[in-house]
């Protein structure tokens, strides 16, 4: 997890306006419960969502919930929550929140190794940021999104493009009003530039940007941020690269002091590792062993703590889901019972008007066929409004155009969050409007995607079936092949052979 991203998340979610009760509970969660009682904090975010007076407060509650899940290693669950939050604003023109949610989604996907989905979310965030009416909000988001682009480049070792993105970000931050703390944003960017130049083995440039980062941080609204420790650590690494071990040690110790004072986990891990490398290079075996053991102990404790908390959070999420299912089933049972009573009373009234007195002889088997049909239609319709149906169909069209279905972690609940509706309505629309269910719907979209690639891109004809399966989100070769044949009536191999034969025949006709 990138420390700058974590800091920005809490900066974003504390920038909303609140009502008094909401504000009081929210502050209690962020200031006390998040770090000391994360399970209680998670439970309280659900209550916070329930008392939200508007969409913005709902979004704030969901972002806080996602942050708690992410902080404790439950990235997949955090993604689902943010997708739900994004759905709240999908039909609005509140581009600040659309940019915010998709920027965070991009980070979560990237950290979870789902690069393709992450880049799609990032592109959506970039497009939304261009439509933000507030000049300073737009500049801040566009600068932060350049940092996110830089992280993608850094993860592939492309430090040249990372530097380009970061410098583009500086152009946005330099235009910010001072109330938006441009110096802090510049400090984070300059620190990243220093790291990238050092990785490109350009220590002189690295020194320049690390020094700029220190100056920016000192002039920011948060001069005591743990960022200072990362900057010191970067300066130490740059001195060590030049074999200036004396200055390297000085800055490593400065970084260590910030790490111990702030108790910032990521900084501790980074500084301990730097000191291990330093003491190995200077042949100080005792100190090397000391920091090696400290780092290992720190990581092990964090892993065990995170595992314990994650298990408790998962249990809480499952309890919540089971509770919702129970309520839904109870409501369904009550509704069905009520419908049955109304139906029986209706038949009684109807037959009474016709002068039929043998009501006691009525049986289920004697129900007229047209009444059965009418009842079925009423049950299937389930009183979904035309506006809701139209909204779901529009969102499904957006989903199909986005290629989100290629994500191998795509699930029914994720799609429900995307369309911002409920599972019952989604199933109903898929059945009545597309004559399918969720699994067949997703599989057909994926197969059609591959078929189009095979027809329009000759390179795909040379790819292995396993690659094609992975490309479109299938978990296995066999599932892909079965779905492919179900949609096209041919196996993938047969389909590819047919396309090759057609291409050969066309080429023969042209010669």
What's this, in brief?
The chain has 511 residues and is mostly helical. Helix content is 78%, strand content 0%.
Please characterize this protein's 3D structure:
The protein is 78% helix and 0% strand. With 511 residues, it is an all-alpha fold. Among the domains are: 1-133, Alpha Horseshoe (Serine Threonine Protein Phosphatase 5, Tetratricopeptide repeat); 438-510, Homeodomain-like (Arc Repressor Mutant, subunit A), CATH 1.10.10. Helix 6 runs parallel beside helix 8 (135-155) and helix 7 (115-129) runs antiparallel to helix 8 (135-155). The longest helix is centred in the middle third of the chain and has 69 residues, at 285-353. The chain has 23 helices and no strands. The chain is globular. Residues 394-498 form the HTH araC/xylS-type domain. This is HTH araC/xylS-type domain-containing protein. The chain crosses the membrane at residues 331-350. GO terms for molecular function: DNA-binding transcription factor activity; sequence-specific DNA binding. It comes from Arenibacter certesii.
């Amino acid at each position: 997890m990138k420390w700058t991203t974590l800091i920005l998340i809490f900066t974003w979610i504390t920038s909303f306006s609140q009502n008094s009760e909401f504000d009081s509970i929210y502050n209690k969660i962020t200031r006390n419960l998040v770090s000391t009682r994360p399970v209680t904090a998670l439970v309280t975010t659900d209550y916070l969502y329930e008392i939200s007076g508007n969409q913005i407060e709902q979004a704030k509650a969901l972002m806080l919930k996602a942050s708690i899940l992410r902080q404790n290693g439950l990235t997949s669950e955090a993604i689902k929550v943010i997708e739900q939050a994004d759905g709240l604003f999908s039909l609005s023109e509140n581009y600040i929140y659309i940019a915010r949610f998709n920027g965070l989604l991009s980070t979560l996907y990237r950290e979870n190794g789902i690069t393709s989905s992450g880049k799609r979310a990032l592109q959506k965030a970039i497009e939304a940021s261009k439509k933000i009416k507030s000049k300073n909000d737009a500049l801040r988001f566009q600068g932060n999104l350049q940092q996110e682009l830089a992280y993608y480049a850094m993860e592939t070792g492309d430090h040249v493009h990372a530097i380009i993105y970061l410098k583009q970000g500086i152009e946005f931050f330099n235009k910010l009003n001072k109330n938006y703390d441009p110096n802090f944003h510049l400090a984070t960017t300059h620190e990243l530039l220093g790291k990238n130049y050092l990785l490109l083995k350009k220590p002189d440039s690295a020194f320049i940007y690390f020094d700029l980062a220190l100056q920016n941080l000192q002039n920011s609204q948060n001069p005591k941020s743990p960022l200072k420790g990362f900057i010191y650590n970067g300066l130490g690494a740059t001195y060590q690269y030049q074999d200036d071990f004396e200055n390297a040690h000085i800055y490593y110790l400065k970084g260590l002091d910030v790490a111990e004072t702030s108790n910032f986990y990521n900084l501790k891990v980074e500084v301990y590792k730097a000191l291990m490398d330093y003491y190995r290079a200077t042949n100080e075996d005792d100190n090397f062993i000391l920091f090696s053991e400290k780092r290992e102990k720190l990581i092990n404790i964090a892993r065990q703590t995170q595992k314990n908390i994650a298990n408790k959070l998962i249990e809480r999420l499952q309890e919540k889901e089971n509770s919702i299912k129970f309520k839904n089933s109870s409501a369904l049972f009550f509704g069905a019972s009520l419908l049955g009573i109304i139906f029986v009373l209706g038949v009684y009234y109807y037959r009474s008007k016709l002068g039929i007195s043998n009501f006691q002889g009525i049986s289920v088997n004697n129900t007229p066929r047209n009444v059965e049909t009418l009842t079925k239609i009423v049950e299937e319709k389930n009183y979904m409004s035309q506006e809701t149906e139209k909204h779901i169909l529009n969102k499904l069209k957006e989903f199909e155009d986005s290629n989100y279905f290629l994500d191998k972690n795509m699930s029914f609940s994720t799609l429900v969050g995307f369309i911002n509706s409920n599972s019952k309505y989604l199933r109903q629309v898929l059945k009545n409007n597309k004559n399918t269910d969720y699994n067949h719907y997703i599989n057909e979209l994926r197969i059609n995607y591959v078929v189009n690639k095979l027809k329009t891109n000759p390179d795909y004809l040379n790819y292995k079936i396993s690659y094609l399966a992975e490309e479109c989100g299938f978990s296995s070769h066999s599932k892909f092949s079965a779905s492919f044949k179900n949609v096209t009536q041919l196996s993938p191999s047969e389909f590819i052979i047919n396309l090759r034969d057609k291409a050969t025949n066309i080429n023969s006709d042209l010669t």
